[in-house]
Amino acid sequence: MMTKVDRRDGRLALAHLYVAFIALALGGLAGLLQVLVRSGSFTLPANIGYYQVLTVHGVLLGLVLTTFFILGFQHAAISRTSGTYRSGSRKAGWIGFWVMLTGTAMAAVMILLNEATVLYTFYAPLQAHWIFYLGLTFVVVGSWIGGGAMIAEYIHWRKQHPGQPSPLLTFMAIINTVLWIVATLGVAGTVLFQLLPWSLGLVSEVDVLISRTLFWYFGHPLVYFWLLPAYMAWYVIIPKIIGGKIFSDSLARLSFILFLLFSIPVGFHHQLVEPGIDASWKFLQVVLTFMVVIPSLMTAFSLFATFEMYGRSKGATGLFGWFKKLPWGDARFTVPFIGMAAFIPAGAGGLINASNQMNQVVHNTIWVTGHFHLTLATSVVLTFFGIAYWLVPHLTGRVLTKKMNKLAIVQAVVWAVGMSIMSGAMHAVGLLGAPRRSSFSTYGDAPQALDWIPYQVAQAVGGTILFLGIILILYIFVNLAFFAPKGEEEFPIGETADEAEKTPMVLENWEIWLTVLAALILIAYTVPFADMIQNAPPGSKGFKLW
Fold it and tell me: Would I find Metal-binding among this entry's keywords (predicted)?
């Protein structure tokens, strides 16, 4: 195992991180404008539309920031744990990066020109310029090329070490890459065969139900594509930072396999109120959705077992004595821990969203947006920040200074306060029926709109505090990338506890797991998808492409 990422691989990873943090800056500014408009106290200048700003915010933060950061982190993780990339894999990684960047620029230009104000979900019948859809295609294809480089390095490692389990962090990165490739088949399908021909005028209609179904085939596993890199840090990196050990290598691998199996065939739980899908198939996918609770609880058990074992080794007594022994002054631990804590209410909200009954109360209200900001914008993003605090200086040959460490903890507290206010207000007013995505000016004559105003103001206050947090993280990122003192910053990789059971090789038997995954997808989607095609509206010309 390498102790340091090769400089050539490091440049590839850094290129991805630079794009991610530029997206954070621009998307964060759009988010600030959005909550100010929503409060009713601000009007956008220069004829900029509210939904245009909302699209910028969603696409840059939900798609660009996350995808570039994750691929950069995973390139670095595989290079660190499985060895320096071979030249062909590194070249493929760079090709994937430039294809993704080209697609991102194409989509961004169309959004800024107000030719693609279709939100980050880009549902039909909203239509964007064909360049936007082609740009999205490039982003997906570029990510496949980069992911292919990772898989090639994993296969090479396995050939060089027959009969041995791969490094845990590499295995986790490959699971997440496979999840991404399988999930993006859905969004690639709807873009290439429906939305792109439609926007070019080659067909006059698309089937909206099929389009939405293909999007949510992708849209829900997208959440786990965001989340699993945070889990990688929680499972493998945090134990090393605190001075403890990984509770169980086998449990970590099994939980990631279960996330792969149960995160993809569940898209219908985002479509519970839609006609055209039989209720029995919705119920099946709701059941599969709730199965993901199992690896989530496994993760919580493993993490807190690691924390307790460390605390006991330091002399902690009592039920929660270990809590005081954790290194609260280390931003590399404290920032991701705040993200872990946020995942408790975020997970509870997710169970509500996935419930066939309770979803009826919150569907299409701003409750969903509040949940989204607890999961992605708190649990995931704070963990990404925590990763950046050691990964960026590791790759740039610099160090995380005491000053930056303290500022990083301040940044996390500012973020947590701002998000608690904003997301809390979203959850509360969502229960009162406030619609998702709407601006203050679009409420019209809704009789309850006046009751929503205090919550909208609270969202603006929380959003403003969050923007201050974005300014802080950007300052820290620039410092660590370009100005921090030269030195050696550790890429922490935890070791498995001595008492842990030996990892069984069946956990890396891809024939088994990919077969089960394919079977689950076919069971969940084949019949309802056939029903959609057979019961398509008469003259639905979009179906000539299928």
Answer: yes
Which one of 21, 97, 343, 372 is the catalytic residue? Answer: 372
Residue 255 tokens read as 């939980």
Rounded to the nearest 10 degrees, what angle do helices 331-354 and 381-396 cross at? Answer: 150
Residue 220 designated active-site? yes
Q: Tell me the residue range of the domain where 51 lies.
A: 7-545
Average confidence (pLDDT) over 434-462 = 80
User: Is 2 contained in some domain?
Assistant: no
Instruction: Tell me what the mean pLDDT of segment 71-98 comes to.
Output: 97
Active site residue 332: no
How many domains does the chain divide into? Answer: 1
**Measured distance between the N- and C-terminal CA atoms of the chain, rounded to whole angstroms:** 47
- Annotation says 129 is catalytic: no
Residue 460 C-beta-side C-alpha neighbours within 13 Å: 17
Distance between CA 8 and CA 106 in Å, rounded? 28
* Catalytic residue from among 57, 75, 90, 220: 220
- What is the value of pTM for the model shown? 0.95
57 given a catalytic annotation: no
pLDDT computed for residue 43 by the predictor? 87
Domain containing residue 201: CATH number: 1.20.210.10
Q: Which of 120, 156, 436, 440 is catalytic?
A: 436
